[in-house]
What we know:
Layout: H1 5-8, E1 13-16, H2 29-38, E2 43-47, H3 48-59, H4 68-84, E3 88-95, H5 113-131, E4 135-139, H6 153-165, E5 170-174, H7 185-195, E6 200-205, H8 206-213, H9 229-246, E7 252-257, H10 278-285, E8 286-287, H11 298-306, E9 313-316, E10 319-320, H12 332-350
Parallel strand pairs: 1-2, 1-9, 2-3, 3-4, 4-5, 5-6, 6-7, 7-9
Antiparallel strand pairs: 8-10
Helix pairs in contact: 2-12, 3-4, 4-5, 6-7, 8-11, 9-11, 11-12
Amino acid sequence: xxxxxxxLKTIPISYASCSLGNPxxxxxxxxxxxxxxxxxxxxxxLSFPDILSYGSTxxxxxxxxxxYDELCKVAEAIKAECDKRKLGIMMLQPFSNFEAWKDxxxxxxxxxxRKDAFERARGWIRVMKAxxxxxxxxxxxxxxxxxxxxxxAVPDLRELCDMLKEHGFKVAYENWCWSTHAPDWxxxxxxxxxxxxxxxxxxxxxxxxxxxxxxxxxxxxxLLDDVSKIELIERFQxxxxxxKFTIPKEKIYLLQISDAYxxxxxxxxxxxxxxxxxxxxxxxxxRPLPYNGGYLPVTDVATAVLRTGFRGWFSYxxxxxxxxxxxxxxxxxxxAQAAHNVHDRLLAxxxxxxxxxxxxxxxxxxxxxxxxx
Length: 373
C-alpha cells in the first residue's frame, strides 16, 4: 500500500548549516543562513565548526573549541541571526567520540578521553542553552576499539541523557557507518533500547544506512561485494523491512537526507593519516543531494522510515565536493532551493509517484563557470 501523500506534506524540513558550499571551504555563515531561509526551510542543524568559524568573525580572534564562555556568546549571536530569518535551530551537531572510553585511554589530542568527553558534554549543554535548541546529535564513536570498553557505552549514554534531562534536552543518537562499534541502525537501536531513557531517540540517515549496508567506496562496483548483487538487494531490503517494523515512530527524532557519488577510484581500506577510515573519508566530500549523480537507494531508505509512521524532521545534510571530491563552484541560493525541490520530489516518490526519465524537476544543481557567470 502506498503512503498517503497528504500526510507527508506536514513534515518539517531543516538544512544543516555546514552543508552549503564546498565542504572544505564553506562560504560565510550568514550567507548560508540567507540561502537556507530564502529557500523556505524551517530550521537548521547548527554545526559546531560553524560556531567556531563565525566566532572568529564576530569576536575578531580565533575561538578555542573549549572556551565555552565565548562559544555561548557566539551561539547567542547565531540564534539572533536565525531569528531574523525566521529559522529555528533544530539541533546542535556533531557531538562525537563520547561513549565507552576506557580509563586513562588518550584521545587524538593526547587528553584523557573519558574525562574530556564528559567535560565537552557539560560545555555543549551550555552552548545548546545559548543557541535555544533542545536536541544534541551524538554520533556513534569511531574511537579505535582498543581504547574502548563497550560495556560502558550504555551507562555513558544514560548518564548523558540524565545530564540533558535537567535542562529539558534530548539525545539524537546516530549510527555513523564508519563507527568502530555501532555502524548500523540496528546497532544504535539496540543501544538506545538499553539506555532506556525517554529523552534519547535515533537520528537516522539515508547515507549512513545505505552507505554502510549497501555501498562500499573501496570496491570497483561501489557496492558491498561479500555477496552477489541479488543477495545484496535481498539483504538490504530485509534490513529496511526490519527497520519499518521494529522502530517505534516516537523513537525517531529526525531523518537526515543525502546521496553519495561513486568515488573515481576505490578508496584504500586503510585509515588515513588522521585515522579516518574509508567511509569517513567518503562522507566528507562525496555526499550530494538526491537526484544529483549519486547512486544510493535514498528513496527506499526514506520510505522505510516513513512506514514506521514517522512524520518528524527531514533534514538535508550534504557534503558535496563534486564527483571528483575536489569541490564545486555553485550558487548557494540555487543549491538551497534545489534541496527544497528535492524534498518535494522525494516525498512524492516515497508516496509512489513516478517521474519521467529526463525531467529533473529543478532538483539538479549545475556548476558555475570560473568567472561566476
